[in-house]
Amino acid sequence: MAHKHEGKSSESLLDKTVILEGLSIKPHQHIIDAGCGNGYMAKEFSKLLRNTGKVYALDPDTQAIKQLKNEVYSTNIEPLEADITKTTPIKASSVDLLYLSTVFHGFSQDQIAGFQKEAARVLKPGAKLVIIEIKKEVTSFGPPMEIRFSPEELKRTLFFTPKTLIDVGAYFFMLIFENTIK
After folding, report:
1. Distance between terminal CA atoms of the chain?
2. Strands 161-167 and 172-178, bridge-based pairing
3. How far apart are CA 154 and CA 132, in angstroms?
4. How far apart are CA 56 and CA 168, in angstroms?
5. Among 113, 105, 108, CA closest to 133
6. What pLDDT digit, counting tens, does each position of 120-162 carry?
7. E strands present in the chain
8. Of 47, 61, 44, which Cα lies nearest the Cα of 103?
9. Which CATH class is domain 11-20+27-178?
10. Which residues contact 37 (CB under 8 A, 6 or more apart)?
11. DSSP state of 91
């Protein structure tokens, strides 16, 4: 069953301050915002980088990327029409932080495998993989319960090393992994 976001954003429900504090972004880092949608977090990352480093804003949605390119022209944000579950044009072992917000639950088993392969390829050793998901509890919005992941299920599904679990809104959690794969 393919899951579609239909242009909906969880931006207003997430606590951006808590998210950004938990990520400890520093100038000169290279960051991927995968499934960036309208690019609101890519823009936040860019501010914290203070025009150093690079933010790759990835989304398979042609229109979203086209719009974002117009908005971030001459910044350190590079919008790319790309799918993080497949090989991207990003250089191997070049990324300090891979950020994925309310996207993972929509992946099929094959996409999860592709995502892990691509994440392992682009992340530097010791880099962070950050996944934000909707809690696996009854909410008036969000994906069907059967495709949601609890933090424990994410830890079992991914081969990265889980480090930190943070609540980032009434309905969301952020799980930070470390790339310990050589």
Report:
1. 34
2. antiparallel
3. 10
4. 23
5. 105
6. 999 999 999 999 999 999 998 899 999 999 999 999 999 999 9
7. 30-34, 54-59, 77-81, 95-101, 123-134, 161-167, 172-178
8. 61
9. alpha beta
10. 5, 7, 9, 59, 61, 64
11. P
